[in-house]
């Protein structure tokens, strides 16, 4: 049976062109980039090419690009590295309640080490308030970390405006841009950021390779200690093949950004209109306009996200409930709770994320089948007292989007 993959926010298939670029570095150009003979020198030279491709994609200098083993590592490094470097100046960090767990759990770890963290709330569409941010900044604030675009509800935060406020106060600013790259323009100079995290597998590259952009001259402690790789900032023999893959994936992503954005946005809107128009008591989560071009996130009254996922899987559709990191646990998503959804409603969420290869026919198939699935699940599970539905949540959504 044909599969329709609508979970591009969890991971993407590796572009065949990217696979092509990797292969020689697993075979003939296998040398350790630190070795001085020909095999090593060739690998080192190639890595610098990939570094430049990433730098070009985000308008940085190639000397500001540091390869890591994942987006999660880049987030950990940015937060712990700045905290450790500046702990004599202050121990206060500001972030938001809707960050990826790589950021949230790094902050929680630092709290155990004596740091203080402010978790900014978000409004009902997932935006932080610039006023809240200004009010949270203190004399001992050393770091602000706010994600560029949310991986669950797709809301895009006002990073440029946040960067301006944070810069005026002389505080270090980090943004997790893992969901932004390849989906919206990312320009480190325009955004006023000091640190920015990226991951290859969200942009049609392989899993297990990330980047931390570190603005030139910014003091930061190392996270991984060992050899002198990455200009003595990140130890470990370079993952040459994956670095080359990330470089190529970033190049393809920026070359085709405009057309991909238009493609995803068209299908996303087709999906949103279809679902909200044909399914009663459905709600779109996240900002109606300031959202990732490929992201649609819904709640359906009276049913659990997991049941929808299983029914979709049976007919060949791959989607997600909350984020990949929380599926398997029965806790409602921290992001959906932060936008004010009652736990009972947050359980009914479905995230569908569109990619380069998604077609309008795919979306029609998904919408038509969802109508039936939701109806069937609702018929099967009569309303019970354990799942009271806050009708206002859905009335409001209907009011917004019809
Ligand atoms: C996927 C993701 C990460 C983690 O990246 P990995 O390379 O999978 O570790 C971090 N932040 C966001 C917003 C993500 O979507």
From TrEMBL:
A GO term, aspect molecular function: 2 iron, 2 sulfur cluster binding
Single GO cellular component term: L-cysteine desulfurase complex
Reactions performed catalytically: (sulfur carrier)-H + L-cysteine = (sulfur carrier)-SH + L-alanine
Family annotation (Gene3D superfamilies): 1.10.260.50, Aspartate Aminotransferase, domain 1, Type I PLP-dependent aspartate aminotransferase-like (Major domain)
Residues with the N6-(pyridoxal phosphate)lysine modification: 202
GO BP, sorted A to Z: [2Fe-2S] cluster assembly; amino acid metabolic process
Binding site for [2Fe-2S] cluster: 325
Cofactor(s) for this UniProt protein: pyridoxal 5'-phosphate
Top-rank taxon, per record: Bacteria
Active site: residue positions: 325 (cysteine persulfide intermediate)
Matches recorded under InterPro entries: Aminotrans_V_dom, Aminotrans_V_PyrdxlP_BS, Cys_deSase_IscS, Cys_deSase_NifS_bac/arc, Cysteine_dSase, PyrdxlP-dep_Trfase, PyrdxlP-dep_Trfase_major, PyrdxlP-dep_Trfase_small
Binding-site positions, pyridoxal 5'-phosphate: 71-72, 151, 179, 199-201, 237
EC numbers for this chain: 2.8.1.7
Classification via PROSITE patterns: AA_TRANSFER_CLASS_5
Pathway: Cofactor biosynthesis; iron-sulfur cluster biosynthesis
Locations listed in the record: Cytoplasm
Domain Aminotransferase class V stretches: 4-366
Subunit structure: Homodimer. Forms a heterotetramer with IscU, interacts with other sulfur acceptors.
The protein's role, per its UniProt record: Master enzyme that delivers sulfur to a number of partners involved in Fe-S cluster assembly, tRNA modification or cofactor biosynthesis. Catalyzes the removal of elemental sulfur atoms from cysteine to produce alanine. Functions as a sulfur delivery protein for Fe-S cluster synthesis onto IscU, an Fe-S scaffold assembly protein, as well as other S acceptor proteins.
Family membership: Belongs to the class-V pyridoxal-phosphate-dependent aminotransferase family. NifS/IscS subfamily.
PANTHER family, per the entry: CYSTEINE DESULFURASE, CYSTEINE DESULFURYLASE FAMILY MEMBER
The protein's name in its UniProt record: Cysteine desulfurase IscS
Organism listed in the record: Acetobacterium paludosum
